[in-house]
Amino acid sequence: MEEAPMLFIPGPTYVPEEVARAQARPMIGHRSREFTALFERLIPRLQAIFRTRGRVFFVAASGTGLWEAAIRNLVRRKVLCLINGAFGERWHQVALANGKEAVALSVAWGQAIRPEQVVEALSAHPDAEAITVVHNETSTGVMNPLAEIATAVRQAFPDVLILVDAVSSLGGAPLETDAWGLDFVLTSSQKCLALPPGLAFCAVSERAMEKAKEVPHRGYYFDLLTMARYADRGETPATPAISLLFAADRQFDHILKEGLEARWERHRRMAERVQAWASERFALFAEDGHRSWTLTCVSNTRGIDISALNEFLRRRGKVISSGYGPLKGKTFRIAHMGEIQLHHIEALLTDIDEWLAAK
To answer: Where along the chain is substrate bound (predicted)?
Structure first.
């Protein structure tokens, strides 16, 4: 069997062998004592990773499913969607698809959303019940100033819920659910948490849970109140992805043993190294001061053939990503998230430099 390449892409990310092997444990029933014990091990560690004392849930879905959960549970009519990349746009589309009045606050790709822009938009739409914001846009390499946005919203519009996509940042950059006053924070298993795809996790504030009681037609699969009722007895409403939860059980131990602050710092150092390299050889797409800790979007100022570069890298056991959507070919992206270490980054950059030198 051909050896899989090391993934420097926005996801899925590299899964350590011992974590992957954990999925092969013998199956258990999801209404058994064994599953309840697993559930009760996972929840406090999830709370630690989300930095919350509130409710946390997991579902068998991608993060997209929890976009829908946030909208269906927490918005009766109107939501303000913050957009500065492909995934902000997509969450906006999810809100529209669920019949909500979804107002878009859009800024240019590569730029961060400013707190004052959010306050101005909410002032123009005082009946908005919530905002949606993507903390870390992997389409552009921009990390939005989430703490500052949340503070501004809390001060100017204290009743507005703050709904956050942390799919590519939770576990790789500072995020404080409780301290920043966030109401719904979602992530996926296959990014900074370095798990196989197929699980999504969220943290939900108490006031968000109360808001859900007022919202009709929350749906069935992603109803937060149903999830809470089952969670109170150590269960999930539907059959969970038990094998993936075995892997999470193993990986959460590893994450917390490393320590969240140490994990954040490792990601910061990798980002700093890649961005210094990219600045010398190309240019950075994301604006200065708001660059991601988990992914670097490089402007293809030299007009290189990114597909040809990736063919070369695959022969070296590595792979990166081209630009996303309208940025395809104009940028390329190097992810430095999950269990990637600085020595992996150094090996990748050495290989790219060798390819560039031959051009």
So the answer is: 333
User: Do 212 and 242 belong together in one domain?
Assistant: yes
Distance, CA of 335 to CA of 314 (rounded, Å): 16
Q: Taking a C-beta distance cutoff of 8 angstroms, is the pair 347, 8 a contact?
A: no
Separation between Cα atoms, residue 108 and residue 321, nearest integer Å? 21
Scan for tokens 């509130």, then name that residue.
Answer: 54
Would 1 be classed as within a structural domain? Answer: no
pTM listed for this prediction: 0.97
- pLDDT value of position 329: 96
Does the pLDDT of residue 21 top 80, yes or no?
A: yes
pLDDT digits (tens, 9 = 90+) for 131-163: 999 999 999 999 999 999 999 999 999 999 999
* Consecutive H or E run containing 6: strand 6-7
Is residue 206 assigned to a domain?
Answer: yes
Question: Based on the domain organization, do 228 and 80 belong to the same domain?
Answer: yes
Do 89 and 238 sit in the same domain of this protein?
A: yes
* Burial annotation 227-255 (CB, 10 A radius, 16+ → b, else e): beeebeeebbbeebbbebbbbbbbbbeeb
Per residue in 334-351, pLDDT (tens digit) is 999 999 999 999 999 999
Cα 226-204-31 angle, rounded to 5 deg:
40
Count of other CB atoms within 10 angstroms of residue 14: 20
229 is in an annotated binding site: no
Q: Which domain holds residue 344?
A: 6-12+259-357
| 289 shares its domain with 198 | no
Q: Could you tell me if 204 and 326 lie in one domain?
A: no
